[in-house]
Amino acid sequence: MDIIRSLLERGILVSPEVMGDPLLAPMLSDITEEQLTNTAVIDKDFLLSIGLLPKGGAVSANSNFKIVFSYDKKPKKLFVTDFVSYFNRRFEKLSSFLRQRQEFQRTVSINRLKGKTEKEQVVIIGLVFEKSVTKNNNIIITLEDPTGSINLMIKPDKKELYAFAKDVVLDELIGVEGTLSNNFIFANNIFIPDVPTTKEFKMGPVDDCVAVVGDPHFGSKAFLKEEFEDFIEWINQRKGNEDQKALAAKVKYIVMAGDLVEGIGIYPGQEEDLIINNIQEQYDVFAEYIRSIPNHIRIFISPGNHDAGRISEPQPPINHKYAESIRTIPNVTLVSNPAIINIGSTSDFPGFDMLIYHGYSLIYYADHVDSIRSKGGQKRSDLIMRFLLQRRHLAPTHTSNLYIPDCEEDPMVISELPDFFITGHIHRVSASNYKNITLINGSCWNGVTEDQEKRGILPQPAKVPIINLKTREVKIINFLKDDKDSQGKLIQKKDVVEDKKEEYALTE
Known about the structure:
By secondary structure, the chain is an alpha/beta fold. The protein has 14 helices and 20 strands.
């Protein structure tokens, strides 16, 4: 109303169709002084002419979203029984996915194997308790369920099965079909929960876009300030060629999956890498930039391991006192890590479910899964994300992340299959598809720090994947100005994007 009163004092009228529309009214704050020159009326045609309203006049609701899942349970004192219940709930949920298959109609619990005859074919489901390799290169997997445990043996002569077994990780759930012999099961097949082939590939009715902004790390000396400011200019349609400005006009959602700030005391010697050594000031500077994003764009923000708050997953939304400046931004929605949101729904379209996970566990699987490590490890975020979808769990192995054992459910289980899976953390950019789920790993906005070099992280900074909800196509805009970061260290500007999606630099 302050903006409208200011416009009326200058003799500029606002049409009722704009003033009374909760989707259009917020756009008034995005109109520049230059655009107001020689303007008498602000209506839909005017918003269309300056690029705030997409061609055709259709606009997605700023409030056209739903939080499907955001963890907000209060912390409590934990007991050993909470861990037992946690893994039992995980077993129940993940095993239910396998039991829907024809092969598992004759599943038996492990304790009932004692009543089976020698050489009998059996089917069981369990969590991986232990894994080892014998001197004859046989893989031995100890599998357990709530009733007991048993050893599986996979021999090298079954090449495909053996290769698959090499990728099995501790604590994941698998199903096994095999031959019982001497208190062993000689495996013939191994099954994982995986994504069913019946998953629908949705395409939206409106030509809207989602921008994925990876790990900003405000407060770091390596923060790429000029590049991030170019992103702000682009999202406001003030920078880029005509096609790029038109693409910016279509962006209705921005997803930031954690590590908004560099944080304090995250790793030894971090103070040497900081340009802002106060956590609240880091968030305040971040908020200043976010306020510059047009109000009609809904911004979803989840925490990461560098953000203030507990590091154990699931991490609650950033609702603490240090981030007060973010909570007051009207078009920002704070969610947990992980979280599920639904966007783009209409009266006759259910919208898209988007799973957001910062990705603390990703590095573990890059290092410990043989097939991923041999193909590039941390450089192949697309393979890591696919691996987690196949296991239907964001961190199946006990040591791959820090977690809070919820005795009622395991919040890290991927219960409902999303349309989009968004991660960050490893500072790489990728866009791929797995069984009709679009997988996006965001980039980052800082160069190489000494800590990253120690951990083998080679960033691909200042790249923004843009998802078109109508076509499901992904474009990647490269905002990186040159091959060196703010500390003068080399950045691989032309490093390969594994998925080979369209990538192009921002044009002056």
